[in-house]
Amino acid sequence: MASESVREQTGRTAPGPRRGAHDRADGTPAAPADPGTPPYAGDPLRRPRRPLVPVAPGPEAVELTGPVFGPADVDPLDADLTRQHTGDPLGERIAVAGRIVDRRGRPVRGQLVELWQANAAGRYANRLDQRSTPLDPNFTGAGRCLTDDDGRYRFTTIRPGAYPWPGRHNVWRPAHLHFSLFGTAFTQRLVTQMYFPGDPLLPYDSIWRSAGDAARDRLVAAFDPGLSVSGSALGYRWDVVLDGPAATWAEEGR
Amino acid sequence: MTRDITPAQTVGPFHGHALPFAGGGAPAPVGHPQTVTVHGVVQDGAGEPVPDALLEFWQAGPDGSAPAVPGSLRRDGLGFTGFARVTTGRDGHYLLRTLPPGGAPYLAVCLFARGLPHHLFTRLYFTLPGHDPLLAALPADRRLTLLAAPDPGHHRAYRFDIRLQGDRETVFLDFAEPPSRHGSRHEATPGDA
């Protein structure tokens, strides 16, 4: 069945993901040998054709600094996506937490973390998402928080549903959370997606695969009972390492 | 010892209810006499507007130093935080009201859009300074893609279009320490929409 659906999606006859031998303890398929889904290369009309121009920013480069955020920017309630309306949203409550560090392992302190996602039924509260899947009047699916002095963040939200890729035949996105993160340098800016362990859609997802065989597992959170809230929410841990130019790594005291 | 970075993923089409914020495109203090307007379109390789792009700007203040003050997301109309975030409209057009940077005369720009597996960095220069290592390394025609043009029809206004492809493709920048580590983003295979 799996390979049939892959053939429909891609027009190729590659076999579906192999199961078993390579699966990890948490059930997430680890680097399927040939899932038959090419990595997402982007919109061919939007992707620049010329190579990026390497820049070694000098000490005066504004990109070595970045915006500063503080309590004026973020309300503590912004980190709880289940409390933004008068009623309770539908779905499975989850707590997602982790630590943001730079390449040297130093915590990224006091920086902005933004989260957005589909609701439990797999629909975004966004006018561009016009599928017939139900909206949830008690769920907007957008949150913000600041990292603490140890680089930690935490959100309470709803586990999002999988959803079909608009305009494609039977291609589904696995459940995922979109994350936007800032470091202390503008060059550390990161927008990415977090996935859930054990999701059978992962090997078929061309966007997850676009991160590369070696790196994509870093986008999959770990189930962490220690983060669960008794009687309320299942806990997932997802840590992030931000990039940065060499010049920022030499700075101390961050 | 360095750690492996977390890879980027596309911003996707559904960020408009989450990332924009009130006043995002107007970091200039209200009524500031030095305010400049910067505007333009984001175009794809067919010359069509990109209606779902998210642009972020980061810059020094008029005194040449990077602002280190919070409040970008809840602007008070008085201070200058140096950070802006705008989305393009259906016509691909964006507009920013800011203060001209002192020191190096450019804004750092970060562009996100559906169809971009990784965000793009560029710079918007108000003038082309004589001693700038980046500009000096570029051919003249490429250099001009980074220059905002005075907009004669409007007061203290500049035009800056961003072209993702084509003869006048904007120069996009890679700040990573070599060897580059973003995997396949430069070698992506064509043909996948």
Automatic annotation (TrEMBL), chain A:
Signal peptide (UniProt feature, chain positions): none
- Give positions of region: Disordered: 1-90
Q: Which organism is it from?
A: Streptomyces albireticuli
Q: Name one GO biological process term.
A: 3,4-dihydroxybenzoate catabolic process
For bias type Low complexity, the affected ranges are: 27-43
Q: Name one Pfam family in it.
A: Dioxygenase_C
What is the name of the protein in this document?
A: Intradiol ring-cleavage dioxygenases domain-containing protein
Superkingdom of this entry's organism? Bacteria
The record's section on PROSITE patterns has: INTRADIOL_DIOXYGENAS
Which InterPro entries does this entry report, sorted A to Z? Answer: Intradiol_dOase_C, Intradiol_dOase_core, Intradiol_RC_Dioxygenase, Protocat_dOase_b
MF term (GO), any: ferric iron binding
**Which residues are in the Intradiol ring-cleavage dioxygenases domain?**
96-124
Which family is it part of?
A: Belongs to the intradiol ring-cleavage dioxygenase family.
Question: Basic and acidic residues: which segments have biased composition?
Answer: 1-10
Keywords attached to this entry: Dioxygenase, Oxidoreductase
Q: Sorted alphabetically, which PANTHER family does this protein's record hold?
A: DIOXYGENASE, PUTATIVE (AFU_ORTHOLOGUE AFUA_2G02910)-RELATED, INTRADIOL RING-CLEAVAGE DIOXYGENASES DOMAIN-CONTAINING PROTEIN
UniProtKB/TrEMBL annotation, chain B:
Please name one Pfam family that this protein belongs to: Dioxygenase_C
- Domain Intradiol ring-cleavage dioxygenases residues, every copy: 34-105
Does Oxidoreductase show up as a keyword for this record?
A: yes
Does the record bear Oxidoreductase in its keywords? yes
GO molecular function term, any single one: protocatechuate 3,4-dioxygenase activity
> Where on the tree of life does the source sit, at the highest rank?
Bacteria
Q: List UniProt keywords, sorted A-Z.
A: Dioxygenase, Oxidoreductase
Among NCBIfam families, the record links this protein to: protocat_alph (TIGR02423)
The family this protein is said to belong to: Belongs to the intradiol ring-cleavage dioxygenase family.
Q: What is this protein called?
A: Protocatechuate 3,4-dioxygenase
Q: Which organism is it from?
A: Streptomyces albireticuli
